[in-house]
Amino acid sequence: MFSKFLNLDQEKQDRIINAAIKEFAQKGYDNASTNEIVKEAGISKGLLFHYFGNKKQMFLFLFDYCYRLISEQFYQRIDLTEKDFFTRIQQAVLIKMELLTTYPDLFKFIEEAYLEDSTEVKADVEKKIKELNSINIGKVYEGIDFSKFRDDMDIKKVLKIITWTFEKMSEEELFKAKLSPTHEIDYEKIFLEAEEYFEILMKTFYK
């Protein structure tokens, strides 16, 4: 669907992507202006729609692009040979912090997409998030040594409790960000809070 855009030289692709990410991240979907995007990217509006079809398709393309780039970087860095569950999850949180520093604009765009209320794209984004979370949770759990967990508990239920704990943490932080005028998320605070939960959960569920 986006073959015309993907056939462009990399420099031009990057210019358009960076301009669109900046506009959507700063203003949200409804208020983002394609006029500003083409002005920043140095192309005509006709060409922009030639590449993406419409504003909605461009937004969803950018969501996939940002998520894919960050996921690729994440899986290049994480040690999937680490078999301890909590060490693996702590490692994942640290890598996310590193990537946040490396790709702040991409994370800002993804955050805004998660917070997006526009009826035009909200359902599509929520569907993508649900599918991607399901895939990524499965990968992060691969090769874990479950023998460290207590024998008197159902491991599937334990993993659900742990997953729900951090999902709820994420939901609360996103809700706070949504109420904030800047939509800023304090990742360092989240990391420190997550460390406290790791300690409690490890004491609860490990032998």
TrEMBL record:
- Record bears the keyword DNA-binding: yes
- Tell me one Pfam family matched here: TetR_N
Q: Which UniProt keywords apply?
A: DNA-binding
- Indicate whether DNA-binding appears among the record's keywords: yes
Coiled coil regions in record: none
Specify the DNA-binding region ranges: 33-52
Q: What is this protein called?
A: HTH-type transcriptional regulator BetI
| Source organism | Neobacillus rhizosphaerae
* Lineage, top ranks: Bacteria, Bacillati, Bacillota, Bacilli, Bacillales
- Originating gene: betI_3
